[in-house]
Amino acid sequence: WSGQARDGRTPIRSDDLFFGNASSDSQPDWVDFNKIQIPQADEQQRLLVNLILQMNAAKKPLPRFWYFPRGLQAVVIMTGDDHGTYPGYPGGATAPRFDQYIAASPAGCNVANWECVRASSYLFPPWVASNPLTDAQASSYVAQGFEVAIHNDSSPDCADWTPSELNSTYTASLTSFASTYPSVPASETHRQHCVSWSDYDSQPQAERAHGIRLDTTYYYWPPTWVNDRPGLFTGSGMPMRFTTRTGSVLDIYQAATQMTDESGQTYPSTVDTLLSNALGYGFYGAFTANMHNDAAESTGANDIIASAQKLGVPIVSSAQMLHWLDGRNGSSFSGLIWDGSILSFQVSVASGAENWLEVMLPANSAAGRLFSVTFNGTPVGFALQTIKGMQYGIFTVNSSGSLQASYRKIKVTGSGQIASQAPALRANFGFVANGNGPVGSLSYHDDGAIGGSIDVKSVNTSVPVISSSNCATFNGAAKVNQKTGYSYSVKACDYAEPGVGKDTFSIKVTGPGRSYQNGGILSGGNIQIQNQ
């Protein structure tokens, strides 16, 4: 809803774009608040990605990049508005707040690797209010990885604006800011005071025209709407580019502010929920906080930092996130050639993504499973990970170069003995698992099984898959002691020829009244993983 004060408050704000229950036009909220913890738009996009990959699977596997550096599933973007000496505010406290963030950072942390607690401070420009932060202080903090940028205001304060008025205030704000802080880089990220948003697209267009490339003005507020429900009111946890009302993409990112200290949210439960959902349910995201820098102390900021550090989630500034986004989205794949079993292509790694960028290759193709990857002819290890129902081989690229991914069908065979569940006894196994039909079979017997002797005979066997460079897994339905209704899974590892004392075999069986698991190094026999 563009240009409407739907929440009943002035000025028109960013939340009004999503606020359904206007007094004169009651409608459902733009995003279903019954599912507010789910990034509903992101999940639909991930479904689309899965469809694209599946529909192309018969042609060739398609590579993609992961969202964040080093496989991170969540990031906190820490910001704070600082209104300086403006009437009604405490007087400005960016310096003591930044000092607290430095103290909360791990000893010896590396800013470039997102190991330190860093943040952005958005200052009222001097034409609006002065600030005790000096140019020398601001320059020093920027050198340590913090960001100091403008917090633009309308004229008059906290009012609706026309596009022309908005551009005029940006000119005045940036000019007065530069004159007071000549040693600080020009503002490249921003939040508008009062989060005023008078129409659909003038704000990001004005920002971009003045060199600003990431905006945090989309804001989860007011408290009566939020109702202390942690969530994603835009339907997304991902920074993404704005568009004009006609659909043209703008080179400026939206990083919605989901956590504030003025929305009636409880901490640490709000941040705990967002981060736990990202790490536990795959609701990945960059979660922006506005913990105002008007006063030195912020319990909300302290709670957010403690929660993020406990879960291994980095806390970064808006500028750090922008530089990563430029690096990630400026990187690309090209020259994809598929010969039926090998995918060859080029990867171009843009500045800002070096040493951090993760490539994701579908683990399955018409030619079989992902078997090996090389970068400029050198073997590269990869980890298998299932994301939203799709399994990928994931690895990091440090620079631009040539990649080759080999896909193969495999045959896994083995027979021998491992230790029983009972001391001094052995369990016997034998199996064949084929990438091509017929798929195979399994037999397993352990007289020393806890709960009584167990005899497993496969009813069917899945196609074997590589789980690491030396190991394969397969599974299926089975009869246990001649009774149906059971399932099994096997992991077999081929470490040496012969395999005695080296290869390993493990099995898990579940079904009515029985749960059995055993595994170990072969005391007799051999396992082989072969290409087909």
Q: Can you walk me through this structure?
A:
The chain has 9 helices and 32 strands. The protein is an alpha+beta fold and 532 residues long. The mean pLDDT is 96. Helix content is 20%, strand content 34%. The strands form 6 sheets. Strands 23, 24, 25, 26, 27, 28, 29, 30, 31 and 32 form a 10-stranded antiparallel sheet that branches. Strands 4, 5, 6, 11, 12 and 13 form a 6-stranded parallel sheet that branches. Strands 14, 15, 17, 18, 19 and 22 form a 6-stranded antiparallel sheet that branches. Helix 4 runs parallel beside helix 5. The radius of gyration is 28 Å and the shape is elongated. The longest helix is centred in the first third of the chain and has 18 residues, at 163-180. The termini are far apart.
Give a short summary of the structure.
The protein is an alpha+beta fold.
User: What is the C-alpha radius of gyration, as a whole number of Å?
Assistant: 28 Å
Largest sheet: 10 strands, antiparallel
**Beta fraction:** 25-35%
- Mean pLDDT over the residues: 96
Net shape = elongated
Helix residue percentage: 10-25%
Question: What are the segments in which pLDDT stays under 50 over at least 5 consecutive residues?
Answer: none
- Helical stretch tally: 9
Strand segment count: 32
Roughly how many Å apart are the termini?
58 Å
Which structural class do you get from the secondary structure elements? alpha+beta
